[in-house]
Amino acid sequence: MRIVTAISGRRWPARILAVAGVVGLASALVFTAPAPRAAPGDQATELTTTVTGGAIHGMRSAGIIQYLGVPFAASTAGPHRFAPPQPVPPWEGVRPATAHGPQCPQSAPLPHVPALQPSSEDCLTIDVYVPEHASGTTLPVMVWLYGGGFVLGSNAQYDSPARLVRDGQVIVAIPNYRVGPFGFLALPELATDDGGITGTYGTLDQQAALRWIQDNAAAFGGDPGNVTLFGESAGGMSVCTQLASPTARGLFTKAIIQSGACARSPLVPPTVDRAYQRSADYASSLGCGDFTTRLRCLREMPVDRLLSSPTTMLNTMDATWTPVRDGVVVTSTPEDALATGVARAIPLIVGSNADEGATFVALLDYARGAVPTAAEYLDWALSSFGDHSDRVLARYPVADFDTPAAAKQQVITDGFFACPALFTTEAARRGGGQVWQYRFNDAPLGQNPLLPGAFHAAEIPYVFSALMGVPIPLPPDADRLSQHIQQSWAHFAHTGSPETPTLAPWPTTTPTTLELSRDRIALSDSFSPAHRCDLWSTISQIGW
Asked: pTM for this one?
């Protein structure tokens, strides 16, 4: 490994434990959503601008200007349930934009854990964070798509990107989009009603938000011709899906994919026939099995009943609800689309975390009172990898790890995230794209037994200043790494290159990755062997 930069290291203090928990999908374990408020010492000042629909006023907070809960599309209730988003209706007067809108309908993140915030089918709102800037200045826009396995998530969880916005001189916009069956139900009768569109309503919500940015960026001082799309986990997969979508062409110019699992993972858009079967099984489980009436049955069903299915909960590495290759909105897998050149003119940053699997062992085992045993690990491998399970177990024998949980964690890290990131990078480069690949190695909580290493979503508080409105008190050495990452992401938005004085050189050639941690930033050529990607390259799909 060739050392580029050294950064002094220090363990996170214990008080970070609760805050760091939110950056995994288990955020509800530690937070309930506080009411949006001005940061201490800031005086909230309302500012007014006009967007599609009417006038809005926001406030100053944490040294930036925030416009929260701005509608970008109509309510998705009633006949608009399981349908493409509709134009936002106009409002009279000046609409307050000082509080987040409700999240889209979704189950609780864990059993016996309350929802993070109120939900509603009238949920298609966008939060816009704007730096103070000189009149006449035109700023890049960065649009963040949240993760949550396509069953969880909301824009309020990412309040706020204040330092990225303030110091990077970028606008950050975060839209809500529909998740679970509300976003991805696929039935033949829906395709008939909407010109072939089915199972891509959440994807279309994201595109509606991007079109809203095209129409309204100038109202905030933004450049609609310079939009960076970025996201993490299912949000990263959403970025890949938008790259693969012909209906998203021209809506963004750059992309950042954080732990997106865009190739060969359970989140890859399935064929329409497979999606039809999944959705038909879901409808039948709710008592809507009659083909002639099931759509009306589902549209008339209360939200709580629609969410009663286990498929709406994050309780397995498999996925029922994802974007669908409907032949209209999504026409190919992201990996195939990248290989054919869809990102030839769209610079990409692609990355993963060194210990992604730790979050899922914590969420799917420990949080449910289970500790993986050797027998459970073998059963899980068989159910997850089928005919490939013998080869997976041969490369990850439980005897090679301290515990069965550690073996399971490494398989998830390598097979579901690290190698898919590499395959995404390789596909884009085959298609003529320019890609910078990284691996995030910082361990926010050290090597503790419950959430060790650089777990899935550990990098999020290094990009955002606060989560759910709660500041992330990084210690100085971790905060310096956070600053370096934010500077790089902002520089990428401005110029199309993430190389800064600290994060350079950063080649775009295989097999080099940039390794990021608080005590060392380095180039490495060992990513593929470290994650056994030779094995995973022979498995075309996980979880189907």
From this structure: 0.93
